[in-house]
Amino acid sequence: DLSTLSVEKRTTTIPVPDNNTIVLLIRLPNIGQAVGTTYDYKNFYTLTCIPYVLFVDWSPDKQWLVYIQTLQEKGELVKEVWRMKYDGSDKKILSKNEKYCFSPRFSPSGSKIMFTAHENNIDKITTKIITCDIFGNQYNEIFISEQLPENCSAWGQCWKTDDDILFTYYDEHTISPHVGLINIVSKKISYITYLDTLDPYIIQWSPVRDEMAFVGKGYPGTQVWAINGDGTNLRKLSDCFLANAPDWSSDGEKVIFSQLTNGFEDNYTVWVVNRDGTNLHQLLKKDGFDLVDPAW
Q1: What's the pLDDT at 97?
Q2: What's the confidence (pLDDT) of residue 254?
Q3: What is the DSSP string of 129-189?
């Protein structure tokens, strides 16, 4: 029962995180999902209560976490952006009037947080990429859908620099995603076309090199790939039924991700691999639980 693991019911002091500490989502199927951390890769601290949270990301100094809190409001499932300290304290909502928020991420310096907000109107889809600081100040809205083809849905994916954000978008005529890069100062968009044939939909830029890890098409299901920023040196990092949610180690030498190893009857486990595709092995497992969306 995830509710018995919540930080509000626990008196254990949570250690200060280091570069090896992993945050992730711990899911009890059909019950709920909570933010958790692990220091020894065997035991877990949970930092939120059920019913459900989505996405989670560390600040570069590992003092703060951002995540999506879901709640029911007048029959609607609302998704809000929240922040908290590494031990689950000092929780605060960061989004304002937005009801459908996704993918909060810290910038490389940790001074900014980015997330996506959607509004589904009768005649069009409005997508905003919003940036703010850890206190919810310096709130900046970028109406990215105004620069994309009509009726596109877009999602902010990750920061490349403190001023540049990678995003994916889908147009109404195809289910395949495209990738763009928007500068939050100039609001100008450029496009990364060499990824179009790979159907990338979750992307993380390396903290130290000009390369990215992403989820793209594979067999039998989606796989984790890495590629240089100029489109060279494509390599497959996962080898399983379905892989998802890659993230880099702080030194840029390893990639962590969640996977279903043999099929949908499995629970999600967390795996790690060197950036060149070597030394692939399982890192985290919890019987009866799904471990998803890991961040290093």
Answers
A1: 86
A2: 97
A3: EEEE-TTS-S-EEEEGGGGSSTT-EEEEEEESSSSEEEEEEE-TT-SS-EEEEEETTT--E
Residue ranges of the chain with per-residue pLDDT less than 70? 1-11, 50-51, 120-125, 172-174
**How many distinct helices (H) and strands (E) make up the chain?**
0, 24
Global confidence as pTM = 0.90
How far is Cα 104 from Cα 131, in angstroms, rounded to an integer? 9
- Give the whole-angstrom CA distance, residue 178 versus residue 189: 13
For 17-30, what is each residue's pLDDT tens digit? 999 999 999 988 77
Quote the tokens at residue 260.
Answer: 């279903």
Distance separating alpha carbons of residues 40 and 147, to the nearest angstrom: 46
252: three-class secondary structure by DSSP = coil
What is the edge-to-edge ordering of all strands in the sheet holding 269-274?
242-248, 254-260, 269-274, 281-284
Distance CA 246, CA 292 (A): 10
